[in-house]
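Check out one such.
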Amino acid sequence: MTSDIAILNKEKEKTAIFSVISNTFLVVMKLVVGIALGSVSIISEAIHSGMDLLASCIAYFSVRKSSEAPDEEHEFGHGKYESFSGLIEALLIFVAALLIIHEAYVKLVEPSSEPMNQTLMFAGIAVMAISAGMNAFVSARLMKIAKKTESIALESDAWHLRTDVYTSAGVMIGLILIQLTGIIILDSLVAIVVALVIMKAAYELTVKSCKDLTDYRLTDDEISRITRIICEHQSDYVNFHGLRTRRAGPEIFIDLHLVVDKDISVEQSHDLADHLESDLKLEFPRACVTIHVEPNTGENAIKPSICETNPEKKE
């Protein structure tokens, strides 16, 4: 189990480095063409990619840190480094959006009277097409590994780049419309739309990160999977209650009270708890499971059992 987690951690690090390299290339490419063309929408995309690059660097640091073993100062591990990373990345997106809106406003108030160079226009359209294609590929890779390793840092990075796919496509359409109509202010209007899309993504990432940092419970689907596993063993115990869950980056924490027959031995109770913990960790490899065993007092045995109403229960 430990070796499997180590392999997943290495895979996370390699994917994070891949994101850093691709974002570096896109920032340089967009800046060169955007400044040469004088296009605020392309420059805004360069700013966006610059924020993505910074976010990718933060994600790389956080996945490395979160993979470290627990120590004296962090006895429950370093998982929340990833949650904190997701929050910082979301705030960076907000900053990028505000910068884009400012640049677009300046261009709207003082529009350029000079037509854009046609050759550079085609270069700008090509850059946006390349950017959209690269980010679509990298974001898909990031999201796949994020789901596989339950990494909020990589998931945040993936959403950054997925947003960049949409905004790059929007800027490309804007440049094509300018090419067809000659209306240069379309460049600034498209940039503002890009900024609004970015801000929406930032809000969603902020909410997700804050949930982890404030010990928000797992999703309904995850809790359903947990109760299904517990209910599969209901013939071995009297009842269970007090199920609590939380997440810290890729790590999840599960604790519950298990009511057993008061006549069984401590060894039997311990073996049952160990077996239940092992089954939960098969479903959630990064889980830290705490099971409090208590004897049947009658009162704790007649509490409504989740298994009686659990739709996932096995017959």
The CA atoms of residues 19 and 304 lie 49 Å apart.
